[in-house]
Amino acid sequence: MDRETLRRAAVATALVLLIGLAFVWSYVGALHEPKFHGVELAVAGPAALAQRLDASQAFTVTRVPTRTAAVRRIDRRKAFGGVVATSSGFEVLTAQAAGVSVATGLETDLPAALRAAAARGARITVTDVRPLPHVDSRGITPFYLAVGLVVAGYLGAAFLGLVFGTKPHGRRVWWRLLATGVIAVLMGLLSVALVHAIGPLRGHFPALALAGILVCFAVGNLAVGLQAALGVLGTGTAILLFVVLGNPSSGGPFSTELLPGFWRTIGPWLPTGAGVDLIRNIAYFDGHATGRPIVVLLGWMVLGILLAALFARVRPLGLGMKADHELETAQAEAMSAAATG
Q1: Which of 7, 63, 146, 213 is the most buried (most CB within 10 A)?
Q2: Which residues lie below 8 Å from residue 265, measured CB to CB, with a gap of 6+?
């Protein structure tokens, strides 16, 4: 066994260990102890009540004049829930569609906090102002739809690399990006159609299909760009971004506001988290608050295109696949033979 083969075996082993250990660290670190961090609340009631709730690190409170205004903030994705002072006590507003984990926590924790501040005998009710469809009572469909689109995006780039070489050269990089676009269009249309056929999501088909295309295309472009820049290590980097870091921080298993600081910070800015937010807000909130996730996904897509274009004619910084090395050698020999012939 020659030195080059040993080097490649060592790099491959190290990459597998790195991804596996990172997977354990990220999922366990993010999801082992969910608790509230600055959950946005709309409070229609006395200033003292708002100050009391805002004093806790669990909540970030915005005072509003009426119940209608509180519901509007929830509908527009500016708050996860609310508290309304009534003549007989308090009404707690939740939104299961915004995240079951947060809504369940609000339903449990807020009444206990309010009883400590309320007069004896005060009545506390809980109202879900944005319920989930009965066919998806856990609200998992946007998360798994986004994950499926992300997986298709980077697997498409990986499979194209296996068939045609990990490193796209010259003008071929544009054909590679076009191929990821075709995969994205088909995946966006078919995956949303499949979810509609199964039943958890109804309506908004054009908007959801466009969202699916954007998610898959952004991920595919970025994976191609990473492969162009890093060779086979680019595929590993894509897995780290999309699976190891992206899934637990996406707000799917637990809402982002329940995660520790690192995952809470990165989640909305990674493709998976942006995809979950975009699909959830289209499906359950009539398209409100879709601007940020769209911009995030477009940013990753443009980054992928720039990386692919920048490294189209240079050797990748990372480890190339054996097939890529053999292809480069064959091309160099053919050019040499043509020059001497």
Answers
A1: 146
A2: none
